[in-house]
Each structure stands twice: as C-alpha cells, then as structure tokens.
Amino acid sequence: MISGMIITFISGVAFADTIKVSVNGLVCAFCATGIEKTFKKQSAVDQVNVDLDNRLVTINTKPNQKLDDATITKLINDAGYQITGISRVK
Amino acid sequence: MQENDETGHTISADYTITPNFAVGWYDKWEENGRLYSEHGPEFNSLIKRWNLPDGQANIFNSTGAGVAIDGSKNKGAAWTDFLADYETRRVFTSYEIRAMYADSIESSIWQRARIGYAPYAANYNDVATWFMLQVDDHPNKNDKFVVTPLVRFFYKTSLIEAGYSSNNRLMFNWELQF
Fold it and tell me: Which residues of chain B have a CB within 8 Å of the CB of A21?
C-alpha cells in the first residue's frame, strides 16, 4: 500500500528542470541583462540567474515545461554569446 | 545616452532591432573649437564579436547622416565611427576612430583610446567600478590632444562616468538600457 502511495505521489508531481549553461563572453551586467531578458520571454522559463564569476546561466523551467538544447543554443548565440556546455538537474 | 565632455554635449537614443543592429537618433553640440551642432539618424552595428573564456572583443560601427548647424548656416552632414574593444571583468581597452563631413562646417577625423582597470570583478548584482584613462586626438579642436582620467560605475543596465580632462573640463556621461 505504501509503495502504491509513493507511485501515486510521484506520478502527480510536476517536474521542473534546472538547466546550467556555460557561456563564453560574459563579462558584464549588460551581457547578463540581455541574456536574462531573452530567456524570460520564453513561456517555459520560470527563473533565470546569471553568474558572471562562473560564466554560468542557470534556467529554471516551469513545472512540466521543457526547453531543449537546440533552443537554448540558438537563444544564446542570437544574443551574441557562445555556449560551451549544457547540463540538466531534475 | 548622454555624454558631456571636453568635445561638447551629445544625446542619443537607440532602439535595438537585433542583437547586432540598432537604429537611433543622434544630436551633438560641439565645443572646444568651432561651435556647431549635428543632428540625424544613426545606424549602429556589431560587425564582429569574439567570445572568449574570460573576455570579449568587439568591432562596432556607427554611421549617421543629417544636418550640421552653425549659426544660420545649415549643411548636410555624414559621419561614421568604428570602435574596437577588448574587455575582461578586470581590464578594458578600446580604440575608436570617427570621420565627420559637413561641407564647409566640418571635415575631420578624430581618434579616442581608453584603458581601464576594475579593482574587483563585479558579479551581476554588484555595482561595477572602473578606473579609466581616455586619450583624445582631435586635430580640429582647440585642444588637440586631451587626456581624461575618469571613473565608471555601472549597475545592471545603468552606467555613469565622471572625469576631469587635461584641458580642465568636467566629464559626465550616463547611459540607461531598457
């Protein structure tokens, strides 16, 4: 019965992704703001954080929303920067 | 953006159409020499960017055309400006060359170089501080070679710069991005 409850609970949970994107060329707040604005326009995105120290853009998606690597790469490239890696945390 | 320096007073507003291209309006009231002004639309483009692990290098162009006004005299005017920069979070360098043509009012080429140093690497939510040295070479001005030490602060999308030039003029520039 407990395992059944766990399965029911898990199937009802809305999963969001945390996506960590390493980016070359991030040197200042102007760069960071441009990237933040770009991702906040995406309907799947809940939060965006730019960490200049680690050249890292962290994107949290909304529950059950996806943002694929190709879209992320295009958005970063179109904003004028270059991706060096993408990793995901559930 | 507004710039007040030893060359005069500039105000411009730009709308970014793509990350590589913006259009805007440019007004400048020249000082330190012939007193005249120039006004017109300007097109700004990012020609090339190099994204590096710890920095960024860019080449920009601004080109505009409009009218130059000297008292009661109005002449067609055109200008183009190339700016190359390299910056990390602690070091900044730039070189800019500008050509201006306004018939009998002005025909000149002007150069500007900057070097800068940030005492700390500001993160996104910090106020960034830069100490910079600007060198101007503008043969058509009264003071042809001018050095301006300045301090730059910026926070997110707001930037201000203040300095004092070797020809005893205050500099105060500001820029806001929306």
Answer: none
Read off the pTM: 0.87
Task: Decide the pairing of beta strands B91-101 and B37-52.
Answer: unpaired
Pick the CATH number of A14-89 from 3.40.50.2300, 3.40.50.720, 3.30.70.100, 3.30.70.1400: 3.30.70.100
> Residue ranges per domain, chain B?
2-176
CA distance A35 to A84: 15
- Bridge partners (DSSP) listed for residue B129: B153
CATH number of B2-176: 2.40.160
Number of inter-chain CB pairs under 8 A, A vs B = 61
pLDDT at A15 over 90: no
Extents of the domains making up chain A: 14-89
In the chain, the amino acid numbered B40 is G
How do residues B88-145 score in pLDDT, each as one tens digit? 999 999 999 999 999 999 999 999 999 999 999 998 889 999 999 999 999 999 999 9
Gap between the Cα atoms of B141 and A18, Å rounded: 56
- Cβ separation A52–B121 shorter than 8 A: yes
Q: Is A29–B155 a contact, with Cβ atoms under 8 angstroms apart?
A: yes
Q: Sorting pLDDT into bands at 50, 70 and 90, what band is A11?
A: very low
Residue of A nearest to B51 (CA): A25
